[in-house]
């Protein structure tokens, strides 16, 4: 059975229309997939940026806590427990409406805890900074190597 030219032309047109329809569907699918991927990536990028910012905030807060409240440059000064000011110091001028007892636990008590309160250690038994050995530098290592006697190579030079 052979097809006439007219029938062949109709079949070819149908094939072309089907191919055109398939290409439109594929383009539509590709654009939808690209849109979904870009939405997911941008949302994940936003989440990652948020996590990074939160991590930076946490590290800066920890650094501030460690450098301010755990620093003890020398002997620890503890303010007197009484709420009366020392007799030799003049009274501090206070702005109107300010009440020290309202904003802090006591007039002379600090706003942050002491190191010993945070770590539960006795400050008298804590080693001083000078008790730890100094770390060795490259010049220390070179000096030590120069001071050590060089080993003699074993061979014909050694006495028998």
TrEMBL record:
The keyword Signal applies. Residues 123-139 have a biased composition (Basic and acidic residues). Residues 1-27 form the signal peptide. Residues 66-160 are annotated as: Disordered. Keywords: Signal. This is Uncharacterized protein. It comes from Armadillidium nasatum. It comes from the Eukaryota.
């Amino acid at each position: 059975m052979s097809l006439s030219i007219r029938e062949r032309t109709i079949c070819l047109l149908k094939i072309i229309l089907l191919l055109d329809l398939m290409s439109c569907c594929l383009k539509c699918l590709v654009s939808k997939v690209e849109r979904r991927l870009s939405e997911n990536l941008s949302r994940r990028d936003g989440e990652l940026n948020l996590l990074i910012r939160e991590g930076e905030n946490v590290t800066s807060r920890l650094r501030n806590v460690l450098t301010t409240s755990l620093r003890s440059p020398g002997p620890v000064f503890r303010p007197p427990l009484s709420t009366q000011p020392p007799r030799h110091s003049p009274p501090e001028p206070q702005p109107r409406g300010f009440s020290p007892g309202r904003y802090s636990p006591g007039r002379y008590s600090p706003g942050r805890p002491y190191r010993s309160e945070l770590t539960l250690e006795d400050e008298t038994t804590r080693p001083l900074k000078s008790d730890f050995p100094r770390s060795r530098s490259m010049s220390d290592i070179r000096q030590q190597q120069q001071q050590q006697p060089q080993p003699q190579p074993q061979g014909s030079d050694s006495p028998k």
